[in-house]
Amino acid sequence: MADAREETLGFVFKRPTLASKVFNEKMILNTISILSIFLAWGLLVHFQVYRFVLFPSPGEVWEDGVNWVGTYVFWIDCFATTMRVMAGVLTAYIVAIPLGLMIGWKKVFSDLTFPRLEVLRPIPAPAYLPIAILLFPWQEASVAFIPFIDAFFPVLLNTIVGVKLIDRDYFRAARCLGSSPNQIFWHVVLPGALPSISSGCAIGMGIGWMGAVVGEMITGEWGLGYRIWESYILIRYPMIVDGMIAIGILGFASSVLIRYLTIRIIPWRKAITESLDESITK
Amino acid sequence: MSNSTAGIESQLWKFLGNVLTWTLLRRILSLVIFILLWTILVQFIGYLQLVPSPKTVFLAIFDLSVTFVLTNIGLSFFRVLGGFFLGVLIGFPVGVAIGYSRRLNHLIFPVFEMVRPIPPIAWIPLTVLFFINFESQAVFLTFYGAFFPIVYNTMGGISEVDIRLPRAAMSFGVGKKQMLWKVILPAAMPQVFTGMKLAMGITWILVVAAEMMSNKGGMGYYVWYNHTLMDYPHVVLGMGIIGLCGAICSIGVGVVGNYFTRWQRIF
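Above: the input entities. Below: the structure tokens describing the complete assembly.
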């Protein structure tokens, strides 16, 4: 879009050299931005502004982080959290996508199932925790239930919207050409809804990480959320920041993975930006 | 005389026919099936004994201590709305600035990209370190949760504005200030409000989680407190109340959003 704007303004487009690729205004401003946040953090802690006295400094965080990554605890924590998130979120995908496709496609099915889901939808996931503890005798399952609930509704709603946004003419054309409902499902409904489903999946993954951390902080034995909470109680503050950074990196990696898979699986997906992905959830 | 009453009657039947459609009946049936399934599962599956049945939950309404619940609802609402409005007040201008100016975007956006993947819940220990009283901790958390969806959607809404609109405005000789207020902001409004709706959902998640971990009141505390007392009907009731409050907030955002995007029906 930026290029389109420049074109209309009448700029001449030059082929960029390597130097201009590295040292352009964008890169310089980005570097300033990232450096300044670390600088601000370091200075605020160093000069002990207000309550920043209690905060760990970047140096301490780095030292503790390096130590932590060296131990087996780090790897078990990462593995436990990732498994919980994946279990919850993938189950949500498996349940929500077929359900959403059917709800979006068949009016009768929608009437029969959707109101009861609408009743459950506004309840935020952490509120399910007591019930999850009751429902599942196995503690891991009750922790994984929170990301499941978190991811379920964005995926479901995006799938429904995706089916509803398919042009009605495709259905008519398919029916004119004599396709069976089965064929309509596999050749019209599913491919038509996939772009929207993929953005639902990306949102679900993001919120799923949040859910897993809540679950681990309240009940859990391993995991990054638990580690953060434990280091808070044991007054090892640099570890809190390390845990946050680890969660951030893992969450980022998983959403990059989803985006990569999206591009591979759905080549006909329109090139829309990340921000528009979020607009489809209501 | 009899003729006119017959007319009224037929109109009544017509009205009933319009209201009592198959769709409505099916929807009601859906809820009935839900409650039936819940009852049956709880009755016949052995280890679910502790899960309250719909009947006990309904009966629990009558021994609800009204003042306790109302104060908790009030506290949760205060935290959610405080954080949400702070998020709008700060996030919206930031989003506009980032979306409108490319230089500011390059300057500010990388920081957001770096901080955003950290889930807001993970900030709880640091907020406890930084803020002394619980209200400001909770409001900070809800603010943090609301901030990113609002900024991202505002920015996205502005950068996705149909390029023909600013071009048309430009050819009419519109200034930079007017361009922002009369063309770009209204065009971005639908997406701004979807961001706000998303933000509202996230603030409720955060408030419940934060309240569960401390004992400073609020609906999350109410649920967790009843969980520790093993008073499960009230846990379910608390969940229901939270859901209702969340739905009210989300509908509220939708109503305001409808006002600002009058020319199109989105919500």
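Note for the figure: Chain A has two domains: 2-54, 58-279.
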